[in-house]
Design a protein that fits this description.
transcription; two-stranded antiparallel ribbon; Arc Repressor Mutant, subunit A; 9 helices; transcription regulation; D-Maltodextrin-Binding Protein, domain 2; LysR_HTH_N; alpha/beta; DNA binding; DNA-binding transcriptional LysR family regulator; 10-stranded mixed beta sheet
Amino acid sequence: MEVHQLRYALAVADERSFTAAAQVLHVSQSGVSAQVALLERELGLTLFDRSARGVRVTPAGSPVLDQLRRALTELDRVRAVADELNGLVRGTVSIGAVAGLGWPAFLDALQQVHRTHPGLELSLREAKSVDLQEDVAAGRLDLAVATWVDRPREGLGSWVALEERVIAAVGTDHPWAGRSRISPADLLDQPVVGLAPGTGMRSSYDAMMRAEGLPAPVSWEVTLPTTARALAARGLGVAVLTSSRADLPTDLVRLKINSKHATSRLGVVWRTRPAPTAGARATLEAFREHLAVRS
């Protein structure tokens, strides 16, 4: 079996689509299909169920793909060790970030890595914090900028870039616009605009309300903070956000929530075993330089 066949099969498993895998790999869909079929023939088993509804990993394919992922990780580590001995930093680094993260410090860090290590191929995928941490733990991502309430997923290395507060944001014509703070219980009297489950903001809101012994209703469930802010600006509800992401709009009034549990953390997570590659370490160093202990 060829190394590129393993990469193709894992891309199909991750994307759950031959077409999407081909786009990620920058090859033709027919090429991916043909190489995966050759791999299946050599292994003597079917890795994927193909149907009009999509592509699914077969029960027999799941443990084989897990082993293939581990094998590729070790092959990449061999290359990384050789590169380090030759004084090179190259290869690939897969980075994850919470959706809608336009933080200049984050973008500056990416730019620095790109300029400093031109032989390093960077990729970026946005997703929910819970999914990002799962993907880092599974080896689908090398590192990620994610949020958590108390601590990230067990087994991941991490450091905190920002200590945030959970706040409420309302339009300038909202009845609360003249206030500077509210209680968690006040949120029960208003339609809440919140992010989807699995996002750091939603987890922080749910954790705060749970700690206060209150339900955590959400009337408007959205994917991005920008959408939440836009709905609140139009008087459709009270957006529950974290403080560092509620600074941009001038048509919103920020309200402190009086709760010692109204906290959230934004930081970087990575796998500690196996140890990060040279490329991942270079990226982590750039992130720490630009992101750590910023407000």
